[in-house]
Structure prediction request, 437 residues.
Amino acid sequence: MSQRLHAPVVLPCDEPMSVLRDAVVDVDDAGRIVHVGPLAAAPATDAPTTEVPGLLMPGLVNTHAHTPLAVLRGMGGDLPLMRWLMEVIWPAEAKLDGGDVRAGMLAGSAEMLRGGVTTSAEMYFQCEHVVEAVLEIGSRVVLTPGIITAPGMERLGTWQQMRDAISRWIDADGLRFGPGERVELGYGPHAAYTLPTEAIVTTAGLAKERGALMHLHVAEAPGEDDAVRAEFGSVPAMLESTGSLGGRVLAAHAIQLSDADIAILARHDVAVAHCPGSNAKLAAGVARVADLRTAGVRMGLGTDSPASNDDLDLWEEQRLASLFARQRGADATALTAGAALAMATREGARALGRDDLGVLAPGAWADLVHVSLDDAAFVDPDDDEQLISNLVWASGARGVRDVWVAGEPVLADGALTRVDPGEVLAGARRVAAKVKA
Prediction:
């Protein structure tokens, strides 16, 4: 159903980070935006108008997540990355069945929608159940089913079987499907240290053939990829020398990078999903955000797993990204509020190879968030620069009131519209109890 949304402030999250006053967003029957601009210059319409008493902006884009792990939140929370994975997470994941994955994805998606995150790039397993949860709750996903060789994962098949199952799924259903194209498929080879090089090389070829995203962990923590470094010099060097770049590639984390590595990423237009909260909690290091941005590398923000973060709050990631970038370079301008907000919206979508998300513009999907300005966080909402600063640094997730995906309300006055939150929570807790039993 076509509609017009009218708000005192509309923040399109375009290149200049415009602030539109007394503005409208018009949405067509398919759930796409057809017009954005001041009410005074808006075209006439017979569509019903919804008055939004605050700020309208695009839905946030979480560029790297393992959301079903919401059911394992807090387990092994004081361990470094490799011990956390091998001693706690992988053994626990081996106990999860399809229903457990669905329950975890529902719980995590509910949390993200309440925080204004409409799209997440997911790497996980038993992904038909991830899709079930997304279509049930009404969010959006760029889904890259995991390909891995790790303890406990043998039950899911060989890496060849995992890889080929993704190709069959894409060939059967297409890259995008579901109401409002809520699901996009890609490939998720886990990492160079959990797969033979052949697995990544052949997966990259299949992804290129289909125009699909290849999403993998790159250089997250010291020591994880020593064998690859011994043979190739670094993971980016391996990817380049084996011809695995040149398609749509998203490198999650990308912390332990040399200048040469950054040049490789820039040369092949590899995007980076920056996950400052998870990186800090696991003591994996601090990404070279300023250097990557200077090199022209596309960058978005990610939460990583709710078992390693331990939340799915992309507003917190904006603040952490800016704080760490400023500290690393001793430069208070290294990542401004506007730049951090762009990484969580427009630039995050660009990192996924999507120009129809993360921005309010004609042709984009009407994935929208209403943030209340009736909050002490906004001390002068009439000042454009201060408004953005207050939004990023002071308001964040608590200000989110309403969310639309493809023009459909999925959060109304803070309440999920499609699922019972009590049932979602109970389902997640049942799985957590099962894993510990």
Notes: The two ends are 48 Å apart (CA to CA).
